[in-house]
Amino acid sequence: MPSLRQLEARLAHIETQISQLQHAHTIYLGDHEALTRIHTGHRIYVDTRDVGICSHLMLEGRWEPWIEAGLASVVKPGMRFCDIGANFGYYTLLGAHWVGPEGRVYAFEANPEILRKLRKSVAVNGFDDRVTLFGNAVYSDHRTLEFRYTFEFSGGGSVSGGGGGPWTVHRVKVEAAPLDSLLADVSHVDVMKIDVEGAEPHVFRGARKLMARSRALSLVVEFHAASVAAVMDPRDYLQGFVADGFSLALIEPAGVTRALGVEECLATLNGRLGYLLLTRTG
Predict the structure, then answer these.
(1) Which residues contact residue 264 at a Cβ distance below 8 angstroms, ignoring those fewer than 6 apart?
(2) Do residue 128 and residue 21 come from a single domain?
(3) Distance from C-alpha of 11 to C-alpha of 36, rounded to nearest angstrom
(4) Are residues 191 and 264 in the same domain?
């Protein structure tokens, strides 16, 4: 006879499966494209070849729930939110939902294949009034860069090089530009999510003016010490945020950590990829 705890666990599992079925209405459109919806009900166009992100969106309607929770804790109605490395637009759509009609989302995706789908996803949800899309690679300066990507793991697309493992790597020239130029007419932003596969230090070098006038600012940043080390010392990178008035924490699957020092942050990650939550109150 199952115990009460076992029955509760089974019930929770069944409820999860029902929820997944409710949100996983996927329509194949042909030419590797499908229209599905995320757990909030918003529609999103995806590439059926992608086994990293899109497979989760089609089956579960959700991606990286702990990162989503970390972002949801800082993105509020009426805010200005930057999604740098937007990919298929999961966080762009969530951000547009969170900021509401009085807020604004600036989404940046350098992969032209994905940008076309992202543009349709914004339109089908009626978010054209609050989302501005950019096809640039966000960088430290203006230049033309080679963007590399695979269809199977599109989330790994990057201007920083790297291989595609067993997958065919595709290359395309993209125009790179700094945030200080792209958002020169924006008075301030409130939250920035940056996930650009190792080019994060270059993004910040080109965003000094924007960050200076955005004193109350939260940053959610992918961080991998080995990738940062190709550009600068990871300790100097993290210390630069602290010196600029940011408190440092990690977004972990178990939740957001308490404020950490630079050495403690590096020790906690111990070389693995993680997500920083950096907050500055003004």
Answers:
(1) none
(2) no
(3) 26
(4) yes
pLDDT tens sequence across 156-205 = 888 876 656 788 999 999 999 999 999 999 999 999 999 998 899 999 99
Q: Tokens at residue 1, please? A: 């006879």
Give the residue among 48, 134, 124, 42 at the shortest CA–CA distance from 91.
Answer: 42
User: Residue 51: is its pLDDT beyond 80?
Assistant: yes
Instruction: Please indicate, yes or no, whether residues 163 and 28 belong to a single structural domain of this protein.
Output: no
Question: How far apart are alpha carbons 231 and 177 in whole angstroms?
Answer: 18
CB burial of residue 215 (10 Å; 0-12, 13-18, 19+): exposed
Range of the domain at 228: 64-281
Q: Which residues of 224-262 are buried (b: 16+ CB within 10 A; e: fewer)?
A: bbebbeebeebeebbeebeeeebebbbbeeeebbeebeb
Tell me how many domains the chain contains.
Answer: 2
CATH of the domain at 175: 3.40.50.150
Q: Are residues 35 and 172 in the same domain?
A: no
Q: What is the pLDDT of residue 23?
A: 54
Q: Say if residue 242 is in the same domain as residue 174.
A: yes
* CA pair distance 181, 177, nearest whole angstrom: 7
100-158 per-position pLDDT tens digit: 999 999 999 999 999 999 999 999 999 999 999 999 999 999 999 999 999 998 888 88
Tokens of 59: 């089956």
